[in-house]
């Protein structure tokens, strides 16, 4: 760098310089040496230039179409869950792949356009710069601005209006492809829907809440039965008539020291034992109960000697039925299933972050990050000898949320 370039410039001197002069001065002040520079298309109206520009425009157009397709799929495609054999099942199954395909293509196309533009249109240049520390002076800032202007001019984008428009459109739409899916996360967590076997959509409820509507709810054991596939004249469909997924549980179904995961099984959805009817179709409803995010409950039969030592929580003294205790399976830390019951110590373990709860002390946390006891479901046995919910949980199930007091 010459000493001439390094000297202090007055504001008048800087204002008097053209953009080219400021850009040149900027490279000198930055210790940048342009070692090599070559225009891609020195001759005006070179057909090769048109070809290169067309290549970039094609990718930008593909990117725009893919981004619009993404937004169209995201907003209008039928996304609601459909069971196998149900009308619209195929459209539902390709919803997520279509989102991935269109968003990927739009971002890839934009990337391809930028790479092609830099590779085929922007002048080739090799510049070398020596690095140095220190804050930027007024002249540095002004010259940097000039350099950016110079880059804009040398990129020739300024005179390629169609390309500018396409690039702007593709950039905005690619941004939307990234931002639009976040819209799906904006929900009102307190918007009530119909109360059914999955709750009413709010965090206060679960499938067990139906009890408050006067519905008798059995403790249902998951048999793992699956609907059968049938192929007939009308094509393949899944036969759910006569298939029961949940069956009622009796106390004698569990050995001492055993644990069973149970789900709410409302009386209208029962299809087992003496009420079994091969024509009844309750499979769907029972599967919804299984999928209820706050429905899973651990039914534990303590050994009698241990049950004698059990400490009941105030207000929950009659929630158990003899040696049988039912605790929510949803961890009060951040909601994993507390799947492990250790019969020797009567501890319930959450495998996510190792919280442990004491089944002998109303599900109280005794180790790990969980700070709240597992909610206990009040249970009893009905006149036919089946275990049923005596009521709903008296507190919300699962992790903490702002409005929760206990
Ligand atoms: S979710 Fe259970 S310990 Fe974290």
TrEMBL record:
Rieske domain residues: 322-388
Residue ranges annotated as transmembrane are 56-77, 97-118, 166-186
Query: Known Pfam families for this protein?
Result: QcrA_N (PF19297), Rieske (PF00355)
For this protein, what is any one GO molecular function term?
A: 2 iron, 2 sulfur cluster binding
List the Gene3D superfamilies: Rieske [2Fe-2S] iron-sulphur domain
Where does the record place it? Cell membrane
Q: Which UniProt keywords apply?
A: 2Fe-2S, Cell membrane, Disulfide bond, Electron transport, Iron, Iron-sulfur, Membrane, Metal-binding, Oxidoreductase, Respiratory chain, Transmembrane, Transmembrane helix, Transport
- Topology term for the membrane: Multi-pass membrane protein
What's any one GO cellular component for it?
plasma membrane
Family the entry assigns: Belongs to the Rieske iron-sulfur protein family.
Function as written in the Swiss-Prot or TrEMBL entry: Iron-sulfur subunit of the cytochrome bc1 complex, an essential component of the respiratory electron transport chain required for ATP synthesis. The bc1 complex catalyzes the oxidation of menaquinol and the reduction of cytochrome c in the respiratory chain. The bc1 complex operates through a Q-cycle mechanism that couples electron transfer to generation of the proton gradient that drives ATP synthesis.
Q: Which PANTHER family match?
A: CYTOCHROME B-C1 COMPLEX SUBUNIT RIESKE, MITOCHONDRIAL
Supply the name of the protein: Cytochrome bc1 complex Rieske iron-sulfur subunit
Q: Which organism is it from?
A: Corynebacterium marinum DSM 44953
